[in-house]
Amino acid sequence: MELSKELLIDLYTTMVRIRRCDEKVIECLFAGKLITFYHSCQGQEAPGTALGRSLRKDDYLYYNHRGHGLPKVLPKGMSPKTFIAEHYGRATGAAKGYAGFHNCDIEIGIPGMGGMVGGEATLAAGTALACKLRGKGQVTANMFGDGATGRGPFHEAMLMSATWKLPLIWCVENNRYQQWTCISLTHPKEDLADFAHGYGIPSAVVDGQDVIACYEALQPAIERARAGKGPTLLEFKTYRFRPHVEGFPDFSVQCEGGCRPEFEVEEWKKRDPIKLMEATLLEKGVLTEADIERIHREATEEMEEADRFSADSPWPDPKGLDQALYAD
User: Fold this and answer.
1) Is residue 322 part of a domain?
2) CA 273/CA 46 separation, integer angstroms
3) Which positions ≥6 away from 20 have C-beta within 8 Å?
C-alpha cells in the first residue's frame, strides 16, 4: 500500500501532538493543576493514531485507560484544549467538567469508555449492532489493552460480534504488562491474536511501533466491517515507556527488585514510534530536519495554549450536576 505524502506527514504530526500533549498533562499533574491521576501513553502513539485517522467522523471509537484515550481521541478529532480542560475539571472539558477522566464527544463518534478494564467491549458490540441496523456503512472500533483479554466481557462481546457479523474492529494493544503483571504470567500463548481463531474471526499481529504498518493493517479490517463481513481482531505489539500510573514506582511483580528492569525500557525506546517515523520520512525525502523541528515546535506551542485555555476556563456550575448524570 502506497501512502500519500500528505498522509505520512499527518500520521507523524499527529503522533508528535499526542506525545507533547501527554508530556503537558504530566507536567500539569505534578504542578498540582489536575484533579485526577494519569496513565501516560508515551511509546504507544502509533496504533491509536492509525486507527483515528482511518475512521470516518460518523464511525464510533471506544478506548481504554492508557493515556485516558489521548492517542485515540486526538486522532479522531478531539481538541487538546478539550482533553486537558477535562482533566482540570473545567466546564470546557469533554464531559463539561464532571467526569475528569472520561473524554467523550458523541458528535465525532467518541462515546467514552467503560468503568473497568474491558468494560468497553460489550458497549462496542452494542454500538456495532446499532451501526449494522442503521445500514449506513458505519463501523465501531474498540482499542483495549492486553489485560482486557482475560476478562469475561471481552469474550462475550467477541462471540456476539462473530455470530452476528457485526461491523466491529477489535484492536488490542499488547504492551506486555497488565498494570504491574507481565502477560507471560497470565496467558499461555504469546500472541493474543490467537483468541480470534476460536470465534472464526480473522486476525493479524502488527508491529505497534510502526504507524505505517498499523495503518496498513487497519484498512482491510475496516473495509471488511463496512462490507458486512464481520469483525477482525488486530494485535498491536507495543510498549509503554513510563510507569503504569504517574507518581508510582514502575512496579513489575515478576522482576527482581519489584520493578521493570531499566534495560528493557531502554531497549524498547530504541523503537520509539515517533523516531522510527522520523527516520522513514527523512529517508524518503518527505520531511527535512527543519520540517521536523517546526512540527515539534508547533505541537509544543499548541499544548501550551491548551494549558492556558484550561486554566482560564470556568468551573462547572454545581446546579447543573444532574446534566452529567441524566439525559433528557
Assistant:
1) no
2) 6
3) 296, 299, 300, 302, 303
